[in-house]
Amino acid sequence: MRDVAIVAFAQTRHTGHDTGLSEPELILPVINEVKERTGLTRFGFTCSGSCDYLAGAPFSFVSALDALAAWPPISESHVEMDAAWALYEAWVRLQHGDIDSALVYGFGKTSLGDLRTIMTLQLDPYYLAPLGLDQLSYAGLQAAALGAEREELDEIVRRSRADGRANPYALDLPDPEGDGLVAPPVTDGAAAVVLAAGDLAGRLTSSPAYIRGLAHRIEPHYLGMRDLARSVSAADAARAAGVGKGPVEVAELHAQFAHEEIILREALELTGDTVVNPSGGPLAANPVMATGLIRIGEAAARILDGRNHRTVAHAAGGPCLQHNLVTVLEG
Amino acid sequence: MPSDPLVAQHVLEFPGGYTRSTGPVVGRFLTELRERRIVGVRTGEGRVLVPPLEYDPATGDPVTDEYVEVGPAGTVTTWTWVGEPLGAHPVDVPFAWALIALDGADTALVHAVVPEHPKAMRTGMRVRPVWRERPTGHITDIRHFAPEVTRIVSPVRAEYRLRAGGSLGVFLAGVERGVLLGGRCERCAKVYVPYRTFCPECGGPIPDTLELPDTGTITTFAINNLPDPRAPEVPFVSAYILLDGADLPMIALVAGVPAHEVRQGMRVRAVWVPESERTASMANIRWFAPTGEPDVELS
Ligand SMILES: [Zn+2]
């Protein structure tokens, strides 16, 4: 395996409403920011993550390429998933050994539609989508399967929102009221990461965040074929990535609902010493399709600026934590 | 000039719907559904997947071509309540999404459950499908699941004609005049109200009526939380009231005081309906209300 490190991370100051910026306009500042920070203007590989259903337009990622300066032609790819998986693809590409740098970015505007019902479109079209099972409904099923105490869930939301208020990129949200399931906030935003392999990493930054483990695992899509109270795939991915090989100072978890954090803490076998989602996490800002990449970026930023030595990032996709990606970063 | 802000409505839609092939496995399930049967498919390891998938999610191996009828009853393993259904949901009344382990299946089906009442919803409850009138081979052929029948309501009603003669007739005649009639036992000197012709304790005769005051003392009481057509409101209080001069209490309603302030030893007086409305019936006394006198020490 080649040493691959995250050498730069940038994210938008996310908003809870549509500011009117187009997707390329949203992306351009973060692309420019990581270019300036690394001094790189061309990359061996570029990969992005987004979802056409968020914009309600086919091939919406193609127009986003306008933000890249894609002429002369670049080597580019896209995943219709959270950009954390674009980072995975870029990491695999760098393992080929013929290129040394990659740009990864993700973006999403959930202000354009009703995410609750848009997420129904990701369900299987035979058994689940025709029922109109929506995002809150299947999250509710998982919360019920876990059966966590209301106080514990409320405390996770309170802590996340307080941390989010201290994070200039996250949303400034009040403490939640009521005793129901708290949904992640409507969020528009984007994020970009630069990966560098081999000697290039050390030349671009004094403290690269080396990817020491990176793995993803998936479970059956149909909710009734799984034990929703546990995340076997997150546990498997964490084991494969080597989360337990050392102390985890900080874990950034892609928990869009409070109960997901409880499930993920157990799956990743995090101890009480690990600080979870100091950025506020998805409960404080959830630009869908960038949220997972932001978890990796936030975990990497703490190593890039010397605050931590070993952090873990998690990204999720699919209904009820179906698909989980775990990254272990070390200074 | 353009309006500010510039906002446009945008709709993504496949008019008429998106045509999809079902393949043999999903197709078999939906075909059976049209016949109001629910089938699962057996995996190589012998598990029954419902709804059927082409591959065993545990091993990735193709499933067998053995289809097994399951249910139609099943057990709710997990559920979440939907208080405000969305337009796309299968029913337009509050309902629960549930994972339902159908009898004979090794996995759970996701569907809607409509209980009689939200509080009737619970894990472990038994449910059965309620079918659409004309199934077409679609997951929504099952409109929703409903609880299995575990109880019925049997109407009971019989009519009787009662006649108050004897001592009760005498007592009610008194009530019609606004007087409570009792009687004293000749042998043991105990005073009973309502009036009766013999003593229940010694069997001695009670030849004459005795007018008793309509004031008394509460000896014990109950707060009732189920509505009663005769009671002023819920909760209401029924009490034993020992009329002044009587040796046995009468049961009557107490009102004119919050239920939680009623106490043993409280002094009360009958509240009569206006004279013009009186009949030979206990309805002449609406209830007993506190007199405001000091409480009586009960021995
Ligand atoms: Zn007697």
TrEMBL record, chain A:
The lineage of its organism: Bacteria, Bacillati, Actinomycetota, Actinomycetes, Streptosporangiales. Signal peptide: none annotated. It comes from Nonomuraea coxensis DSM 45129. Coiled coil: none annotated. SUPFAM superfamilies: Thiolase-like. InterPro entries: Thiolase-like. It comes from the Bacteria. NCBIfam families: PRK07937.1. This is Lipid-transfer protein.
From TrEMBL, chain B:
Residues 67-132, 211-273 form the ChsH2 C-terminal OB-fold domain. Residues 174-205 form the ChsH2 rubredoxin-like zinc ribbon domain. It comes from the Bacteria. It holds the Pfam family zf-ChsH2. This is DNA-binding protein.
